[in-house]
Records
---
Amino acid sequence: MKRLKLYTLLIAMASFTINATAQQTIQFSQYMFNGLALNPAYAGYKEDVTLNLSSRIQWVGINDAPQTSTVSVDGVVNSDNKNVGLGLIATLDQLGPESNTSIYANYAYRLRLGALDTKRLCFGLGFGGEQYSLDGSKFIATDAGDGSIPTGSISKFTPDFRFGVYYYTPSIYFGASVFNLLSGTFNSLVDNPEIIKPVRTLYLTGGTMVQLSDDIDLKPSFMVKEDFKGPTNVDLTAYLAFNRRIWLGASYRTGVSVLNSNLQSDLSEQDAVAAICQLYISEHFRIGYAYDFTVSKLASYQNGTHEISVSITFPGKKQRVVSPRYF
């Protein structure tokens, strides 16, 4: 079953795991510009209502390789104290015969630290669910009636919670979040052996803004993703910002054996190097692009990964002048 083996390889390498017992959460190179996808406590960070769209086409040249899209909107409820942030995010993740659609409503309580309101400690909660589907018609079985391949399409819906903490100042930010908090609680809803069960995933993020000159800033950041099933995923990124309008950066993504390697010996933990650019057309409109150069064993079988992101902010009547948002 060549196609079945290819799908198994794609799923395994996409999640850095030796088996496909769990689907890892979505991956974006421009994660710092789509904070709600990583942390519900990010809701309302920019205060004004902000719309984010992201689309990622992975491993171009490989049929049915991963494709991921998200759309999110968030903002604060009260423009005076700005203590409550609300957000909504929807995601579609497609990998060959499997697809995962999710939607989450997010609530963040934002503690004000200091009279100038330049720093906040935020606690966030997200509630929603995921619809996982598997299309058995996309497999071509060598043996007719192969019991491991479903006939037609099967799908299951699983409700879930997310929790996060987010701290920021004008120059630094740190975040921690846990996805799939109800993992295992609703296993009875996912009783098909072909259906991949979600697993609990931990995110740690952080970054800073360093002024190098009047016109140039350096913005390094990191993201750590741990699903307790395979190597820990580490993403290191750095941008140079010119007049805070044009951002040019690069990132390196790899796996690190911290808690549980669970990776077969002939697979490398190295994943990709990305070139990223961001353009602020105005204070309220940003467009970004990333190109990933795969450095794993898939490098010779594909032509890289393309990712586009767009942010649009809708300013309120009261313009914010203190603590501009760079994350």
Note: DSSP finds one helix and 17 strands in the chain.
---
Amino acid sequence: MSNYFLQYCALISSQAQLDYCRAASSVAELLACIKKLWECPTVSDDDLLREIFLLNQTPINSQEVTLAGRWLPYRYQPQQRIVNWLLPTGHATEPFQDETICRYRQLLLNQIIQPCTSLTVAQQQAKQLVDTQPAGFIFHLSRCGSTLISGCLSELETTCVFSESPLLTELLLDDSLPVVEQQDFLRCFINLQGAAFSERPQIIIKWNAWDIFRWKTIRTIYPDVPAIFLVRDPIEILASHQRSSGRHMAGDPTLAKLHPVFANRHSDGSWLDWQIQVLRSLLLAMSEKSTLAKVMVVDYQYWDEQSLTLVLDFFGCGLNEHGFLKIQERMRFHSKSPGQVFVLDKEKKRNCFTSAEQARIHTQLAFAYNQLNKSAQKNLGMVINVY
């Protein structure tokens, strides 16, 4: 263990010391601040960096550290049962939390001080907190407006959106944990993430498309959280994945533990046929739960200011004029490319497939999609036959 372990723990646990170090504008200045705090003025910069590197690689197993409320857990390494932490700089406004984490890592202090803890210590940190009750969950089929909705919600002054948090993703994929333990750690991670943004008490979690297969795990510990199911015309979803396949549509073997469809990639069918089966499995899983309490279905084709108002009311998020104007501006731009003005491309997506391919998609997916679409229409007081 490094000779500076106690000083390292004191630094990451002290708001005053962290603020002192955050004021540094260069690596040399930051190291000078650390030398002063650790009372080691004669240590060279290189030697100090080597010591800090070793400390960053050593999981903290002590209960003496205080991370909750200051540091954000952002990565979970299942094989080592290690949690990585960083200091947040403002709430998330990027389309995905991965991108928000990249922004946080640009902070000079985050480039030098990178603590990690055992999973047990993370759990102990969370036990100091009051349980967070999220304001809403977003489940989706992918490429159906979830990024737009989460982006709009992030514009409100009281909300904090975790969009496909890699921390939660890796925990839910860790099948080495018993379900009860997985649920406890999931609650702990959500509590810790929420505590880092205490000034934004309304937590919205946008799950991955495949997390619908972990519905029972999630819903058991959060039975009363309102959940929206976002759907879209299957042809448009699949067309988007032809251009750029998401993780669950790219044959990622790590998802095989979630559902048999992810383990059947090597069948005799085409790549499109397999993707149709993946989407069919997601549609069926979502359809089975669409009539449960605290669930609202929203179809991408009906997304407008009326739908937005329904979602905000459903999540209990207040909306003033300033927030409404910010959301209106956000809706003008592409959800994944904020600087690009949004242009409808429904016909372009349909033209991605031949008439025979469109027929195959329709045959396999029409029934499940229509069930969800009818629920979405009901929420808006509509009756339309569209598929």
Note: The chain has two domains: 5-126, 136-158+201-380.
---
Amino acid sequence: MSEQAAPGRVSARNVFVHFEGLTAINDVDFVLHRAEILGLIGPNGAGKTTLVNVLTGFQRPAAGRVWLNERETTTWSPHRIARAGLARTFQSVRLFHGLSVLENVEMGAVGCGDGRRAGRRKAYEVMATLALAELADARADALPYGLERRIGIARALATSPAFLLLDEPAAGLNEAEAEDLMHTIASIHRDFGCGVLVIEHNVGLIMGLCDRVQVLDQGQTIAIGTPEEVQRNPAVRNAYLGSA
């Protein structure tokens, strides 16, 4: 685990996605550098999760191209993209409730090609780094919701990603849990050396955590910049943040 992220980026150019005549993504460009935490915000239905689905192979764009570093991944399967170093979580927590916490995290490593012994070792390392080791033998279905979300993140990290995409990781958390999660995500970027994308409606978390923020509205990018620049942007205030 390196404290300095290696060079690299995930990028997309001129992405369009259509659903039954509706344009969900309309000519969007995207770049996530390995050396940063990027926030992706916007109103419900703005296209945030759809864009992540395109980046991770769960949605084929109608037009546009996607790259992981210098390799075009537009037509790759989700499994191939994950093995190449792009991991994600989902809005809903998808743990294997019949398994232990350790087995859940181990599944991330094994699913990306590690053998059982190597996967278990990697799972222990990830859980120790995230201060979750004491939960190794607990059943996943016995965890409170906030811990379920953390185990989902740990499982994604067990794939040894170069990039981690988090889809609403603070959903359902209270203010104290969200604050703690913000520190955890910052430590993940530092300790695991991966670029991090965060989709989140918790504006305080995004503005306190991210190096840059990209804002979508009605499938289009309306702003990209530092948190301070985005908060001052009139289009962003009108579409999402409000005037307060």
Note: Residues 1-5 have pLDDT under 50 and may be disordered.
